[in-house]
Specification:
The complex is a heterodimer of chains A (about 475) and B (about 230). Chain A is of the alpha+beta class and about 475 residues long. Chain A is built from ten helices and twelve strands. In chain B, helix 2 runs parallel beside helix 3. Classes of the chains: A alpha+beta (about 475), B alpha/beta (about 230).
């Protein structure tokens, strides 16, 4: 039982009540006995209080009437002669007066046997007379016994009531926990939509429920995401696989010339290269989103980065008769992973070159804004329809207009994931005069706070669309 | 003639590795698990060992470790199917070995095997490469054809140097992007084709011979002089 939370709340509570009762019982017991003894000593002490001489004492004692079973008294004259004695005589008490100085008195408790104690007061009068008066007390006194049994019954009852109350409270408090468990079981059975009711009475359980629900939301999102990706991967793998298989079948069913076989081999290599690139990029995006790929951050000059990538595209742009320009403005440095960011810029330029018709132009550059370092790529292509912008960064998304272009539809997803991992922002805008402007914005490595602006305000807007605005 | 040991348990893979390497002129032996691979490498002086990492019993990295403990310094090219490289695999390059992630192009495999063999025989590429009418001075960044200097951009110079060093051997677009520009991904636009095409145009102004040949589906090859 101690292994349950309820037990852990309940058992110490019961233990505490029982312990406290026993303690009180003991203290009262001791105190009562003490009081009895004191009272006894008082009564006996008064006996013969007024007596100054043997005669006075004799008178007092001789006139008293006592229960001989429980009383003990002795009167010894100054010469040591026993004059009077009544009640049960206890030898151990008889010589108590010997060492007293005249005028002194003493009180003693003497254990007579297991059951009985003698409380005795001894007094030596100024003339040497010794008087002793005592009471034999039965330890197992009936009164005490009755009192004690009532007491114990009370303790037991109280403990039971307290335990019941404690159980009821603990049970109520654990109600939320039971609901959490019920929800978990529901999810185990199969519906990830189940949530713990958050209207819990106990604050801790309420917080726990809220956290668990948030966690479930996150898992739900991840699983949905994973499902989408899996479906997309399957879909996007089928097409190249169909092409490979189809090409092979056509060759085998056809005239089987060397040229046909050669062509097939080339097709297979091209298609598998494409598949391989897709798998690699997909994995990289997923792992980057999960934070599994550590960024090797270093100080980077965005201008140099843009120039370096543009250089790669000089000839291919030329071949398409596209003018490739750079507009590098002096900017601060950023901290980033060179390989990842170079690939980001390459993807943007790649897209721009791919979608810009012959005779158009692509311009890449950098600009320093108040609180952000911006790298951008502009093209004179057809622009992106406003309703396609939100889907642009989805994995495998390819606008209808781009179906015929080469590519696996992961370029911009990579851009988004890599820029996100760097804490930057991607923006799509319409280029003045037609075309598209893609921006990636990063915090500068050394931020220069301006007096009237907060650093980072323009970095909080996420992907925004200004097309047609 | 270079002697290569292939350690691979998957018969389909080993079949094509052995056949492909034999076609390239290597003498090839096959071991089908780590233990066999270890013993063969210990007993025979191979120039290069091509070893799959996932092997029954001893895995590829353990074999490398055991060889090095015995101070057998035969260079090993480890083939890994993992896209995510761990530090042990990365560490191979530092130890004079190399790795290749699956899937890889055969051209790349051949290039890596030859590079390892060259390194183990301490053959250094001279700083001045002369192939027929071409002379490439890598230290002074100068190309001359028939003694006349050709004006090349730094990128073009590196590209030509890479092709010339691999004379007679096909290099893929991926390899070119990786070695010349340090990009480990494939751009969707034909950047390499365009670069090669520009380089060809520049070379054609000085020589009538077609120096860089396209091998369909595979890549490019710098033709050796006849």
């Amino acid at each position: 039982m101690y292994k349950t939370l309820k037990g852990r709340l309940l058992l110490p509570f019961i233990g505490l009540i029982v312990g406290l009762n026993l303690l009180v019982h003991h203290v009262l017991d001791v105190a009562m006995e003490g009081t009895l003894e004191q009272g006894m000593a008082g009564i006996l002490g008064e006996l013969g209080e007024d007596a100054r001489t043997f005669d006075q004492a004799y008178e007092t004692f001789a006139n008293g009437s006592y229960d001989v079973d429980t009383f003990y008294w002795r009167l010894v004259d100054p010469t040591g002669q026993l004059i009077l004695s009544e009640g049960r005589q206890i030898g151990a008490a008889e010589r108590l007066g010997d060492r007293l100085i005249p005028g002194e008195k003493r009180a003693d408790s003497i254990s007579v046997d297991v059951q009985t104690t003698l409380h005795v007061v001894t007094r030596k009068l100024p003339d040497g007379t010794v008087i002793q008066a005592g009471l034999l007390v039965d330890k197992d006194d009936e009164l005490l016994a009755r009192f004690a049994s009532h007491w114990r019954l009370g303790v037991l009852g109280l403990t039971l009531v307290a335990a019941g109350l404690a159980w009821w409270i603990a049970h109520g408090a654990m109600g939320g926990v039971r609901e959490v468990r019920r929800t978990a079981e529901e999810i185990l059975v199969g519906s990830l939509e189940a949530r713990v009711p958050e209207s819990q009475q106990v604050v801790e359980v309420r917080n726990l429920s809220a956290t668990i629900n948030r966690m479930l939301d996150k898992i739900d999102l991840l699983i949905t995401d994973l499902r989408t990706v899996t479906v997309d991967v399957a879909h996007d793998f089928r097409s190249p696989l169909t092409r490979i298989r189809g090409a092979a079948e056509v060759v085998l069913r056809g005239d089987r010339t060397i040229e046909a076989y050669e062509g097939l081999a080339v097709r297979v290599i091209e298609e598998t290269t494409h598949l391989e690139a897709m798998i690699a990029t997909m994995l990289e995006i997923v792992r980057m989103d999960a934070g599994e790929i550590p960024l090797h951050r270093e100080s980077l000059d965005p201008g140099a980065l843009v120039r370096e990538v543009i250089e790669l595209y000089t000839e291919s742009a030329d071949t398409k008769r596209i003018t490739l320009r750079t507009e590098i403005a002096e900017t601060g440095t950023i901290r980033g992973d060179r390989t990842a960011l170079r690939r980001v810029v390459a993807n943007l330029i790649d897209n721009a070159v791919k979608f810009t018709p012959a005779g158009g132009d692509v311009c890449s550059g950098t600009v320093q804004e108040d609180d952000a370092v911006v790298m951008y790529v502009e093209d004179s292509g057809p622009g992106i329809p406003r309703d396609e912008i939100p889907r642009l960064f989805e994995r495998f998304y390819r606008a209808d207009s781009s179906r015929e272009k080469p590519g696996h539809g992961l370029g911009l997803s990579y851009v988004k994931s890599a820029v996100d991992a760097h804490g930057g922002v991607v923006r799509v805008a319409a280029r003045v005069g037609g075309g598209t402007r893609m921006e990636i914005r990063f915090l500068p490595e050394i931020s220069v706070p301006l007096p009237d602006r907060k650093v980072g305000t323009s970095l909080t807007q996420g992907v925004s669309s200004n097309i047609g605005a | 003639m270079l002697r290569v040991l292939v350690v691979e348990d998957d018969t389909k893979t080993s079949e094509y590795l052995v056949k492909g390497l034999q076609q390239e002129g290597f003498v090839v032996d096959l071991a089908s698990d780590g233990e066999q691979g270890f013993q063969a490498t210990r007993d025979v002086r191979y120039d290069v060992v091509v070893m799959d990492i996932m092997l029954p019993g001893l895995d590829g990295l353990q074999v490398v470790q055991r060889l090095r403990q015995l101070e057998i310094e035969t260079p090993v090219l480890v083939l890994s199917a993992k896209a995510a490289l761990d530090d042990r695999i990365r560490g191979l390059r530092a130890g004079g070995d190399d790795y290749l992630t699956k899937p890889f192009s055969f051209a790349e495999l051949v290039a890596r095997v030859e590079a390892l063999a060259r390194r183990s025989h301490r053959i250094e590429t001279p700083s001045i490469l002369t192939l027929g009418e071409l002379t490439l001075d890598r230290e002074r960044h100068r190309l001359t054809i028939h003694g006349r200097e050709v004006d090349l951009q730094p990128g073009e110079f590196k590209l030509l140097g890479y092709l010339m060093r691999n004379v007679g051997r096909v290099v893929s677009k991926t390899m070119i992007l990786d070695y010349v520009w340090g990009y480990d991904f494939d751009p969707q636009t034909n950047v390499v084709e365009a670069k090669i095409s520009r380089l060809r145009t520049k070379l054609a102004a000085h020589t009538s011979r077609e120096l860089i040949r396209t091998v369909r589906g595979l890549g490019y090859v710098f033709e050796a002089t006849v």
